[in-house]
């Protein structure tokens, strides 16, 4: 009912023992048992009363009638289902072979068979050509390639030594002159004198 396991029941029992005490615990469990029995009895009586009310009003008979009227057999749906099943099993090739064919139909059938045979032959030919090309490609890839000798790098000529025994002296470069900037002239304007306030 409450989906409580044995461990939960033990915890509840220990807590009840601590809270209620050992003297009053059996009386409390007895009262709790009576209460649950009364609740179950009331639930059973309610269910029985609802079933009796449904039987008296005829709801049960009405439900049976509705089920009977809407059944697949009474509506003819079972016949429709059988017809659909038979249609799925029907094979037009087998049923067509039983009937006699006219000369035009026979000629069309032969033409179609010839076209199907040509398509089949062309497909088989292409498949064999493709397989042969794949085999040739794998055979070509499997052949070991001859190793080419690597070209040796050319030797660089040795650096030329100076012919004279004394090395030429380096001439010192003159230091660049620093450029001086001229300051721009600032134009000063004469200050204005404050105007005297007129007396009131």
Q: If you had to describe this structure to a student in words, what would you say it looks like?
A:
The longest helix is centred in the middle third of the chain and has 40 residues, at 103-142. Among the domains are: 7-58, no CATH class; 102-140. The chain has 7 helices and no strands. The protein has helices at 6-20, 25-57, 59-69, 72-75, 77-89, 92-98, 103-142.
Summarize the structure.
Helix content is 62%, strand content 0%. The protein is an all-alpha fold and 200 residues long.
What is the strand and helix layout of this fold?
Layout: H1 6-20, H2 25-57, H3 59-69, H4 72-75, H5 77-89, H6 92-98, H7 103-142
Tell me, rounded to a whole number, the average pLDDT.
Answer: 77
What general outline do the C-alpha atoms trace?
A: extended
Which structural class do you get from the secondary structure elements? mainly alpha
Low-confidence stretches: none
Order of helices and strands: HHHHHHH
Give a short account of the largest sheet: none
Tally of helical runs = 7
Helix content: 55-70%
- The strand count comes to 0
- Report strand %: under 5%
* Straight-line distance between termini: 106 Å
Radius of gyration: 57 Å
């Amino acid at each position: 009912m409450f989906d409580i396991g044995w461990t939960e029941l033990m915890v509840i029992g220990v807590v009840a023992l601590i809270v209620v005490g050992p003297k009053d615990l059996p009386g409390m469990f007895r009262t709790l048992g009576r209460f649950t029995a009364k609740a179950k009895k009331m639930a059973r009586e309610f269910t029985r009363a609802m079933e009796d009310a449904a039987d008296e009003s005829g709801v049960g008979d009405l439900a049976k009638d509705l089920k009977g009227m809407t059944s697949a057999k009474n509506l003819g749906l079972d016949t429709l289902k059988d017809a659909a099943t038979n249609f799925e099993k029907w094979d037009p090739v087998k049923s067509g072979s039983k009937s006699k064919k006219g000369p035009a139909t026979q000629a069309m059938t032969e033409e179609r068979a010839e076209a199907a045979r040509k398509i089949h032959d062309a497909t088989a030919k292409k498949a064999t050509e493709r397989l042969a090309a794949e085999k040739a490609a794998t055979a070509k890839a499997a052949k070991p390639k001859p190793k080419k000798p690597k070209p040796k790098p050319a030797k660089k000529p040795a650096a030329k030594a100076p012919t004279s025994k004394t090395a030429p002296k380096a001439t010192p470069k003159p230091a660049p002159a620093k450029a001086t900037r001229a300051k721009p002239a600032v134009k000063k304007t004469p200050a204005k004198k404050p105007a005297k306030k007129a007396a009131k």
